Amino acid sequence: MRTPFVVGNWKLNKTIAEALALVTELKNQLGAVKGVAVGVAPVATAIHSVAKRLEGTQIATCAQNCHWEASGAWTGELSPQLLADAGASWVIVGHSERRQFFGDTSESVGKKAAAVIQAGLGAIVCVGESLAERDGGRTLGVVDEQLAGGLAGIDLAGAARLVIAYEPVWAIGTGRTATPAQAQEVHAHIRTRLAERYGQACADGIRIQYGGSVKPSNAEALMSERDIDGALVGGASLEAADFIAIVKAARPA
Ligand code: PGA
Predict the structure, then answer these.
(1) How many other C-beta atoms can be found within 10 angstroms of the C-beta atom of residue 152?
(2) Nearest to 146 by CA among 177, 190, 188
(3) Would you call 204 helix, strand, or coil by DSSP?
(4) Which CATH class is domain 5-249?
(5) Ligand 1 center from residue 214 Cα (angstroms)
(6) Is the CB of residue 234 below 6 angstroms from any atom belonging to ligand 1?
(7) CA proximity to 79, closest of 87, 70, 88
(8) What kind and span of H or E run contains 125?
(9) Structural domain spans, the chain
């Protein structure tokens, strides 16, 4: 009932020319793919060119971050409105690298997510625990706190454009993936929390992506779990062949 959504998070990689080369290949090879939604999140300077190249396809252009205000004296920031103007239709907020290195908190992530929804875009809200938090038995508590903050400004209508990405920090860029069972446990918990907030029918429609060292070799096992509805892919999204294999693995059987 949920169409899986696979998004490539390119992080701080690829010039405009490199980005165009990759999306051209994705466009050619994924143009006819059915049963799975696809997106790419280039660096902000490439969003416009990538979105233009993807016009008329079903591949969405996403941004990796935003500010919560629409305009004003915020040197260096980009608003959801400007990202939409450049061609983005989704914004990732609360990625663990933003939380770890750039001071994003559950509160600021909540403001960003609300601003994204208000601007008419889709929000991919990332949550996930560190290794110390997992080892300390605090995984679900940390996820609860991040969800409460991240979703604070999103109402039932806005939840129609909401995607959650569960990304255990210890699995990001480490080659160490959560097992399908570990991921499913947290995904099911997230859906319970979404149901408490938005009702079961709405929660049943919200996609929950898994992220953290997703590769062609582990994608199918992860995606076959009941509450895993696609992936947020970092490293493996930089190569067309790997990303395409992951997209195909996410198609429902
Ligand atoms: P990774 O990154 O696939 O390289 O682990 C995932 C992410 O940070 O979204």
Answers:
(1) 15
(2) 190
(3) helix
(4) alpha beta
(5) 7
(6) yes
(7) 70
(8) strand 122-127
(9) 5-249
* 13 SS3 class: coil
CB 214 less than 6 A from any atom of ligand 1: yes
Query: What are 223's two structure tokens?
Result: 């995606």
- By most ligand atoms within 8 Å of CB, the mutation choice from 104, 124, 210, 214 for ligand 1 is 214
Distance, CA 218 to ligand 1 centroid (Å)? Answer: 13
Output the CA–CA distances (angstroms, integers) from residue 207 to 79, 147, 226, in the order listed.
Answer: 24, 14, 11
> Which atom of ligand 1 is least distant from the CA of 233?
3
pLDDT in tens, the chain (253 residues): 899 999 999 999 999 999 999 999 999 999 888 999 999 999 999 999 999 999 999 999 999 999 999 999 999 999 999 999 999 999 999 999 999 999 999 999 999 999 999 999 999 999 999 999 999 999 999 999 999 999 999 999 999 999 999 999 999 988 888 999 999 999 999 999 999 999 999 999 999 999 999 999 999 999 999 999 999 999 999 999 999 999 999 998 7
Question: What CA–CA distances, in Å, run from 199 to 81, 135, 195, 225?
Answer: 29, 31, 4, 22
Ligand 1 atom nearest residue 165's Cα: 9
User: What are the C-alpha distances in Å from 184 to residues 55, 87, 112, 221, 250?
Assistant: 34, 33, 27, 11, 15
The number of the ligand 1 atom at minimal distance from the alpha carbon of 96 is: 8
The residue to mutate among 101, 167, 210, 215, having the most atoms of ligand 1 within 8 angstroms of its beta carbon, is 167
Nearest atom in ligand 1 to 236's CA? 3
What CA–CA distance (Å, rounded) separates 28 from 245? 14
Residue 8 Cβ < 6 Å to ligand 1: no
> At a CB cut-off of 8 Å and minimum separation 6, what does 108 contact?
68
